[in-house]
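Hi F.,

I've been meaning to write this up properly since the lab meeting, where we talked about keeping a consistent format for the predictions we share between groups. The idea is simple: the sequence comes first, exactly as it goes in, then the structure tokens exactly as they come out, then a line or two of notes. No screenshots and no reformatting. I'm using this chain as the first example so we have something concrete to point to.
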Amino acid sequence: MSLEVTWKLIKFLEVQTGLSSATNETWSKQQFIVKSEEEYNNLYCFEVFGNEKVENLTKYQKEGDNVTVEFNVKTNEYKGKYYTSLSAWKISKANSHGIQSTHAPQDYNGFPPPPSQQEDDLPW
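Output, unedited:
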């Protein structure tokens, strides 16, 4: 199940690294904090896992940005204890109204937009 929220990114936590015992390769993960507009329980800690995702997180996002985070809730068991994380798999900028702005407005080089994108001025 995939979930999605649009909130304000307020803080990046330190990058964590380690060595995989199975593949003998280094891995990295980074957590970041977003804040909802709710009065209570309004802070959420998400994480990205993998060297490329960690690199892209701070490359394309900045503290204070409104972001849309698509994520999965993940729970792991270790020695009889359960740990839940919010694992982000896509993060994109959102405008101030919470609507994703994934691409810039189209430019028609001074010409009117195609008929399919013009407003219909008929009264019915």
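Notes:
The longest strand covers residues 66-78.
The radius of gyration is 20 Å.

If this format works for you, I'll send the rest the same way.

G.
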